[in-house]
């Protein structure tokens, strides 16, 4: 249940208060790791793994200043992997202060290479690149690897099953380092300086393919850096509730509730903190899934007792979308219409001084990257828009330091149902980007029913939670079909189902032919207006997961 949820930029001139550190109290931040991002697709995964261990961490761009690092005061620093080559003159480098801060440092892949290059070693491009599964053999002793191995060689050395992704390799380690692991093609697959507590690994401990990766990260964060496990769902909830109370006081708060994961968890947190002083605005834009509006009202209004204002705005959205077929135009129109509808409701709540949002940590990272010019826009983010300048409200973002998996865990602690929290992602513009071309009510109604059948059959076949995302797309083309003795000429829909770890890349799901046949037959037989069902077998890349 994730219709368009308002996550907007507010003109900072009108913010009532700086809410940067709102959601978590200082004590659960006391143990902290700093991760410097050199551009790896796995960097956010490093942060998620460290959080999973129970240690707070933040992800910053590699070119931070000494002053910023000092102010953050980490107990350890991790240098991520990256696509660049340290053999190039202007490739990214870690700030020199990283190696003078007196805290442990772990370099991963490119992070190990830049550590070696900056501390007196050498890195060369390799003729034999290593991508994918590999085994590294431990040599010597190392606090990071001690008593962690997957296999033992005949000679008694430990073997680790790992995931490699590198073209360059360290040829000469710095003078005060020792080699702690090797492969047949990489003589220095890991290195360490035990006195300074500097460690480098050429593989990726953050990915699940590295079987002992989580243990290695835990060894670094807990045993080597001395961090405490303060970052737990229960402590995060308690602290967030206390922060909300301290920040908003007796003021009222307004929230755009969609029924999606982020807005739902925000609603439950704030409701626990201030009760009836929270007003949720649920906008039915006509672009929701089948029966979604009623499900939101039943769950949050009837079951949990939240104060919800439902706005029936289907006609307004469809009118504003009329004649628009370009995906970006549709996204912007949906966003602007939502803001206008929400603004109209907000003005009716004279005592509301705070706007709550479901901003999560990846949104913060993405916005920061866009602001610094280090990321390119592939699609406009459906959670980013703008509010009228005359809306003078403070901003409440209790989830802005959390990854999506952390938000889900908190939701479970708050009593939200598993099937809602672990429902497949649904885009903010809803069916607006799953109906290709111009949006019409007829198309949305057909798509809603077809999608409901697809999802129902995935549940029936116990496949739903084995795939990452599944949905149906309405194609604005007609195809000839036969129903009985009659010819029919109706619309086409496409089924889309993918499997992914991070949604950065994805493979199409190899669903059983028999299953696809059942879904296709049901859609064509039960829905008058659809004559053909196709299955999308495009991976990401080159295709994106959503069609628009």
Q: What does this 3D model show about the protein?
A:
- The chain has 14 helices and 19 strands.
- The protein folds into 3 domains: 201 residues, 3-Layer(aba) Sandwich (Rossmann fold), CATH 3.40.50; 194 residues, Rossmann fold (3-Layer(aba) Sandwich); 102 residues, GMP Synthetase, Chain A, domain 3.
- The N terminus is likely disordered.
- By secondary structure, the protein is an alpha/beta fold.
- The two termini are 20 Å apart.
- Its EC number is 6.3.5.2.
What attributes does this structure have?
Rossmann fold; 10-stranded mixed sheet; globular; single chain; GMP Synthetase, Chain A, domain 3; GMP synthase activity; ATP binding; alpha/beta; 548 residues
Can I get a quick summary?
By secondary structure, this protein is of the alpha/beta class.
| Portion of residues within helices | 25-40%
Question: Shape, please?
Answer: globular
Query: What class, by secondary structure content?
Result: alpha/beta
At the fourth CATH level, what is the homologous superfamily of the largest domain?
HUPs
How many angstroms does the end-to-end distance come to?
20 Å
The number of helical segments is 14
What share of residues are in beta strands? 15-25%
Main sheet properties: 10 strands, mixed
CATH topology of the largest domain: Rossmann fold
Counted beta strands: 19
The average pLDDT score comes to 89
What would you say the CATH architecture of the largest domain is? 3-Layer(aba) Sandwich
The CATH class name of the largest domain reads: Alpha Beta
If you compute it from the alpha carbons, what radius of gyration comes out, rounded to the nearest whole angstrom?
Answer: 26 Å
Read across the widest sheet, the strand sequence of neighbours is 2-1-3-4-10-9-8-5-7-6
Domain module tally: 3
Question: Ranges with pLDDT <50 over ≥5 residues?
Answer: 1-25, 370-387
